[in-house]
Amino acid sequence: MTKKRVAVLMGGWSAERDVSLDSGRLVGVALEELGHHVVPIDVTRDLSQLTAALMPKPDIVFNALHGVGGEDGAVQGVLEVMGIPYTHSGVDASAIAMNKVLSRRVFEQEGIGVPPWKVVLREDLNIAHPMSMPYVIKPVNEGSSKGVYIIRSEEDFKTFQKEWAFGDVILIEKYINGREIQVGVMGDRAIGAIEIRPREAFYDYTAKYTPGRAEHLMPAPLSPTAYQEVMDLGLKAHKVLGCRSVSRSDFMYDEVQDQFYLLELNTQPGMSPLSLLPEIAAHGGITFNQLISWMLDQAQCDYKTCAA
C-alpha cells in the first residue's frame, strides 16, 4: 500500500493501560518497518489534547487502545466526528462487544451458546449468593480478565467483597468446567483456534501477560468436527455484532457435553508479545508485519464521514 502517516493511539486510562502501551509500541515498530510515518499518541481523558494531537489529520489511526474509552466505541466516535479512518471495528460493534450484557443478548438471539448468566447490583451481593457455587463474577465492561472472580467457597466470596472495584452493576455467570479455546478472525474468515492451559486456577491477567504462566496449544487439539464448529462460531459472532477487521472470541469447551460456550468477543485483540491473535495468524503463515499491514488496509469510518 502507499506509505501513510499513521497515528497510533495507545495507553488510555483503563485497567489495561500497560497492555495497550505494549501493543502500541510493537505496532509502531511494525509500521515503521513497513515504511509508514508513525505518530505515537498516549491517550488520556483530555479530549482536547487528543484532538490537538490528531492535527494535522493523519491518513489513518491505528487504534491500539484496550478497555474502557478505547475499545467501547468512545474513541471511535471521536474519530468519526473528525473524519479520520481507523482500524478495528466501528462505533456500534465496539460498544456492543465491550458490554458483556448487550453482546450476550445478541449471541443468545442468534443461537450462539453462552453460560447461564444474570445481572445483579453490588448491594444485592451483601444479602445472598446470586446462584449456587461455583460461579463467576465479572465487570460488565472490562477486558483482560480484570475484575474476574471465580467463587468456589465462602472464602472466595469474602475476597471478592473486599477487593471489588468495578462499579455497582455486576455480571454473574455459571462456572463452566472446560477447556479455554480462542478463535481469531480476519475480515470474513476465521484463521485459527488456539487452546490456553493456564498453570494457575484460570487464565487471569497475570497468566495472560507473564511468560510461562500459560501453555499455548496451536492449533487447539480438538477433533476435526469440534475445531470446525468453534471456528464457525467465532466467525458467526464476529458477523452478528457487525465487526470489521480482526476479532478474537473466547470460548469454554465442555467436553462432557460436547458444548462450546462463548464468554466474550474482543474487537481490539492485544498485539503484545504474548497476545493470541498474532500467534494464531503466525501459525497460518501471516507475519506480524503482514497482519498490521492488512489491518491498515481495512481502516475506514463506519458512517462514511472520512475525508476524501
Describe this structure in words.
With 308 residues, the chain is an alpha+beta fold. It folds into three domains: 5-88 and 291-297, Rossmann fold, CATH 3.40.50; 96-113 and 177-286, ATP-grasp fold, B domain (D-amino Acid Aminotransferase, Chain A, domain 1); 117-174, Dna Ligase, domain 1, CATH 3.30.1490. 33% of the residues lie in helices and 25% in strands. The protein contains ten helices and twelve strands. It has helices spanning 17-33, 47-53, 74-82, 91-98, 100-109, 154-163, 205-209, 224-240, 276-283, 288-297, and strands spanning 5-11, 37-43, 60-63, 117-121, 135-139, 149-151, 169-174, 179-186, 189-198, 214-217, 246-254, 259-266. It has a five-stranded antiparallel sheet with strand order 10-9-8-11-12. Helix 1 (17-33) crosses helix 10 (288-297). The mean pLDDT is 91.
